[in-house]
Amino acid sequence: MQEGCDKFCAFCVVPYTRGAEISRPLPRILAEAEALVAQGVREITLLGQNVNAWHGGEGGLGALIRHLARIEGLERIRYTTSHPNDMDDGLIAAHAEEDKLMPFLHLPVQSGSDRILKAMNRKHRAEDYLRLVERLRAARPDLALSSDFIVGFPGETEADFEATLDLVRAVGFAQAYSFKYSPRPGTPAAEREPLPEEVMDDRLRRLQALLTEQEQAARAAMLGQVVPVLFEKPGRLPGQMGGAKPAQHGCPCDRPGVLPRSDSPRADHQPRLPFAGRRTRPLGEHFRGFDNNAAQALPAVRIPAAIYPDSLSDREKTSECIAKACLSKGTGRTNRVRIRHPAGAGEGV
Ligand code: SF4
Predict the structure, then answer these.
(1) What angle do CA 258, 264, 269 make, to 5 degrees?
(2) Is the pLDDT of residue 297 over 60?
(3) What residue spans carry the region label Disordered (predicted)?
(4) How far apart are CA 22 and CA 6, in angstroms?
(5) Residue 169: pLDDT above 90?
(6) Which CA distances in Å does 69 have to 44, 134, 334?
(7) What's residue 338's pLDDT?
(8) How far is the CA of 6 from the centre of ligand 1 (A)?
(9) In this structure, which residue's CA is closest to atom 3 in ligand 1?
(10) Residues 44, 158: Cα–Cα separation, whole Å
């Protein structure tokens, strides 16, 4: 529902490859969402390179979420990827007030050093990010946070990297994506002197050790809780279903008799979204191998052609790809699942 970026971070090609920010208009998004929900979709993820910069209607993304939340039958709303500078009051209030907005937020920060954030042209400081996290958690205390990190950005010193570790310790992330800096041709940062590979390797290892510790702690905190899980695809192992908890951590479940189960071998498991954008697939393809009659009997999901008039430009058609539309199991209901250690595995949750 949003595409492109006006921010021009020094390391990123998106503003050059995707162009300026454009937003799909509110009525078109609502019409598509209503059509999807009428066909059995229970969860919608709003997608955009800068999704919270969406300006296709009055009140921004917070208002759009409130409109979507009024759609009967829609159980879950998510959005990604957001920029800290576009987290406005309305969107933070939506996290506090809209139960259908899941308590998970991917909010990239990239670095904890103000010097590096400036060199990256991120237009926010580490302190701004920390204050924003405080406001978000005040609004939604159970909010799980995820982020992106680049280590070894040109010019990053050990002190800059330590500032990133400090920020990670201060926030406590439920999950994160971290990478060594790699130059993208045509971006300002690509002209700068890179750091030695071994320095980047060492910093990435240290950062990932800390992030892994935090992720494991977040998962361990779920043990014994009963949470609603939306099952949407075969699990990784035979007999499992894969689903998502509100805070997004994957939730394999292996209780045949309670949930749909698959006996198909792992090679036959190709978890994919039921559909994205204009592509449509009959559900049978996604539930191939399931022995749950109800799941097999679900109708094919198709996006009505009327939503994609031929008059749309190719770019608009691309940006129509809003939907991560997750179908629940055959009963069409979210299941409540107690989180436990997988039997015998002794690792993860
Ligand atoms: S990193 Fe994100 S905010 Fe920065 S230029 Fe790329 S898409 Fe835009």
Answers:
(1) 100
(2) no
(3) 258-279
(4) 10
(5) yes
(6) 10, 25, 16
(7) 57
(8) 8
(9) 7
(10) 41
Which residue among 50, 54, 82 is best mutated to probe the pocket of ligand 1, counting the most ligand atoms within 8 A of its Cβ? 50
Taking the centre of ligand 1 as the mean of its atom positions, its distance from the CA of residue 7, in whole angstroms, is 6
Tens-place pLDDT, residues 170-194? 999 999 999 999 999 999 999 999 9
What spacing in Å lies between the alpha carbon of 297 and ligand 1's midpoint? 42
Other C-beta atoms closer than 10 Å to the C-beta of 203 total 24
The answer to whether 232 and 326 are in contact (CB under 8 A) is yes
State the residue for tokens 């103000």.
114
Query: Between vectors from CA 237 to CA 275 and to CA 293, what angle results, nearest 5°?
Result: 60
Question: What length does the chain have?
Answer: 349
The two three-digit tokens of residue 297, written as one number: 């009997």
Which residue is closest in CA terms to ligand 1's atom 6? 12
> Ligand 1 — pocket residues by CB below 6 A?
5, 7-9, 12, 14-15, 49-50, 83
User: pLDDT tens, 125-147?
Assistant: 999 999 999 999 999 999 999 99
Tokens for 40, please give them. Answer: 């059995």
Instruction: Tell me how many degrees the CA angle 223-227-232 measures, rounded to the nearest 5.
Output: 110
Structure tokens that stand for 130 in this block: 């920390």
User: In this structure, what are the phi and psi dihedrals at residue 2, rounded to the nearest 5 degrees?
Assistant: -145, 145
pLDDT in tens, 36-65: 999 888 899 999 999 999 999 999 999 999
Q: Sort 243 into a burial class: Cβ within 10 Å, 0-12 / 13-18 / 19+.
A: buried
How far apart are the CA of 101 and the centre of ligand 1, in A?
24
Preceding peptide of 81 cis, ω within 30°? yes
- SS3 of 241-287: the string is EEEECCCCCEEEECCECCECCECCCHHHCCCCCCCECCECCCHHHHC
Which residues are CB-neighbours of 310 under 8 A, at least 6 positions away?
none
Query: How many Cα atoms are found within 13 Å in the side-chain-facing hemisphere of 41?
Result: 26
Mean pLDDT throughout 193-222? 95
